[in-house]
Every structure is written in C-alpha cells, then in structure tokens.
Design goal:
Blueprint (H helix, E strand, L loop, with lengths): L6 H6 L5 H4 L8 E11 L5 E12 L9 E5 L29 E5 L27 H15 L7 E5 L1 H12 L7 E4 L7 H15 L14 H15 L2 H5 L13 H7 L8 H12 L13 H6 L5 E4 L9 H8 L5 E3 L16 H15 L2
Parallel strand pairs: 3-4, 3-5, 5-6, 6-7, 7-8
Antiparallel strand pairs: 1-2, 2-4
Length: about 375
C-alpha cells in the first residue's frame, strides 16, 4: 500500500474516487529506523539485525502518553494512514496531530523494513524467515518502549494486516493501550483466506523466471498473474456490476484497460510479496502463548474496548468472519462499513467510506 501518491500503495488500494484524489494528502511523516540486534523470530531463526522503518506525526508530550500506533498493511509504508490525519484542507480527519503523536510502523517484508530483498546472506531472498504478525508486534513493542520510551498508547488503529496487528496487540499486550480499532481485517486468517493467498502465490511462482526465488530478473509474468488474481478479490461483485471502477480510473478508461492495468500494478520484489502473504496466512491470535491455538479464548482475553469495522462487502475478510469473532470479544462495538468498495473500504476507498471511518473513529476516541 507506498504513499498516498505512489503507485505501489494504490496497487493494493487502487480505490480512491476522483473526488477523494482531489483532496490534498497530509504531509509525509518524519521517517526513522530502529535496529534490533539478534532478533529471534517465532520460527526460531535469529536475524543479526532486524530493521524497522517507521514514521512519526506530531509531537510526543512530556508524559509520553499521547501516542497512537498505526501499524502498516500489505506492502505499505509509513504514509498509509493519511486518510485519517486531520489537516487544514481535511479538518474531518479523526487524528489531530496537534494533540496526538502518531507512530506508523512498517511490516517486515515491505522492502524498507528488513525484507527478503534487503537482508544479506544467509537470509536473502527465499531464505528470509517467515515473520508472523506476533513477530512484527513484538518488534514494534521493542521500538516503542526502548527507542521512543512510550509505556502506554492511547490506541492501536489498523487496516487489513494492520487490523491483524491491532488484535494481536490487544492479546499480547492487553493493558498497553486504551483501545483498538480494526478495519477490514480479522484476528485470524481462516481457510478461505489462505486458499486465496496461495492462489496468488501459485500464479506468481508458476513463472519459469521465478527459479525458486533465486531469480536474477523479477518474474514479470508471474507478477502480472499475481495482480490479476488480486484484482478479482479486491472489490465487491456489485462494485463491478455498477461499474464503480470508472470512479477509480482516468476519464475515458475502458473496462478492459482498467482490468488489465492490474497486470502492471505489482512491481516490487516478488520475494517480498510472498513473505508478507505468508505473514498474512499465519495470522492467528489463538497461537499466542497461553492459548493453545484457541482463537475464541484469545479474543475473550481482550481487556480494552474494540471498534471492529469490517467492510460489509469484503471478500478478503468476510463480514461473517468478523461477526463470528465479535461474539467472543467482551467490549466490542461491531460496526460494518456500509460500502460496495470491498476490502479497501477500510482504508477510505470512497469519500463516503472515508467519512464513515473518520466520524466513527473520532467518536470512539472521544474526540
């Protein structure tokens, strides 16, 4: 998902209407890097150096208690939550950086934090270890407590894989934040989601140029196939039937042009795409220590209020999965996003989605 203006971010989201595009994005956050030496992953692999790229908006107050964490989503960078940031040109934003300090963390595997593409041997390329959502959460907890000296957060707010992280924060560190917000993402990746991701991986790796991940040139045909599979799941069926793709493309674009544009949307490192897909697949709060794989027990352990906002038409994280999980969370407000924009509704895909998210997050935060 790389800046609100970049191709890579919108290769995933690809959903702003022309009205939303017209709004000026917020300034980019300040970029930083945190290095953890000898980081032990859940798989038992020890990385000599684990690097986390992160960004900050606003100022940390003297008490260090005004921070909100925004964990990144699939292939996103630190600018992926601009749709929530209040600016002079967008006063409706839920997060006012004159009052709160925002930290936006980047997942392992995005190409800037430690990834298959930027880690030296023996962990380069396909030998980079699968990083679980808990690995990411534990690393960022270390970043917050050691680098920024933040002992408590006002909230964790996450979209998609960021929502996965928000749930994991609430299970792994149940009193570290006041509340969490999860949009278009669940606390576990269920079988259908794994099948979908494996379909994309299979499409990518069928390219002979893949060479078991030791490619010398990017497997372009595989990336094109990966993008076409992605496109089929991104939006709702009704979104396609009502031709809402016209609002997400340049005037005069034909259906064929828009559809086949997904062949060129994924142009980063192939091993990175696969690594983050594996992180997505492995997500399960029930596998947190002490819960023996029981997702229901893990959800029941959440102590903080939860604003759970699935997209009503999400094909990646279906509404029924969110409804199932919400039954076990003690202090949950389940509030589906009434949108035809499928998965990206949770990132403010249309002006109506953006308004719904910001109004309800502001209310939930007590703004």
């Amino acid at each position: 998902m790389i800046t609100l203006r970049s191709l890579l971010l919108w290769s995933f989201v690809a959903t702003l209407s022309s009205a939303a595009v017209a709004q000026a994005p917020p300034p980019d956050p300040q970029q930083h890097e945190f290095v953890i030496h000898n980081f032990k992953t859940e798989s038992g692999v020890v990385l000599p150096e684990a690097r986390i790229t992160y960004g900050t908006y606003g100022k940390l107050n003297a008490a260090h208690d005004n921070a909100i964490l925004l964990p990144s989503h699939y292939m996103a960078t630190l600018t992926g939550y601009g749709f929530l940031v209040k600016t002079e040109k967008y006063p409706e934003g839920a997060l006012d950086t004159s009052k709160v300090f925002l930290v936006t963390s980047e997942l392992f595997g995005n190409g800037r934090s430690s990834s298959p593409s930027n880690t030296p041997e023996p962990f380069h390329g396909p030998r980079f270890p699968v990083m679980t959502i808990r690995d990411n959460v534990n690393a960022v907890h270390q970043l917050l407590t050691e680098e920024l000296k933040i002992q408590h957060l006002k909230a964790v707010i996450g979209f998609s894989m960021g929502a996965q992280q928000a749930f994991q924060w609430a299970v792994s560190y149940p009193t570290y934040m006041d509340r969490i917000v999860a949009t278009s993402g669940t606390a576990k990746t269920y079988g259908h989601g794994i099948v979908r991701l494996e379909g994309q991986i299979a499409a990518l790796t069928a390219d002979p140029a893949w060479k078991n991940g030791d490619y010398t040139d990017e497997p372009q045909k595989g990336l094109e196939a990966f993008g076409m599979v992605w496109a089929g799941w991104l939006y709702s069926q009704e979104w396609w039937r009502k031709e809402l793709w016209r609002t997400a493309s340049a005037p005069g674009t034909t259906f064929e042009q828009y559809m086949f544009s997904f062949r060129k949307r994924f142009n980063a490192d192939a091993n990175n795409y696969i690594l983050q897909a594996r992180s997505w697949e492995s997500n399960n709060v029930g596998n947190t220590a002490g819960f023996n794989g029981d997702v229901e027990k893990a959800l029941a352990s959440i102590k903080v209020p939860v604003l759970y906002m699935p997209s009503a038409t999400d094909l990646y994280f279906p509404l029924a999965d969110a409804q199932y999980e919400a039954k076990f969370i003690p202090r949950v407000e389940l509030l589906p996003i009434p949108s035809l924009w499928g998965h990206p509704a949770g990132a403010g895909a249309s002006p109506a989605d953006k308004k719904f998210l910001n109004e309800n997050i502001a209310r939930f935060m007590g703004n």
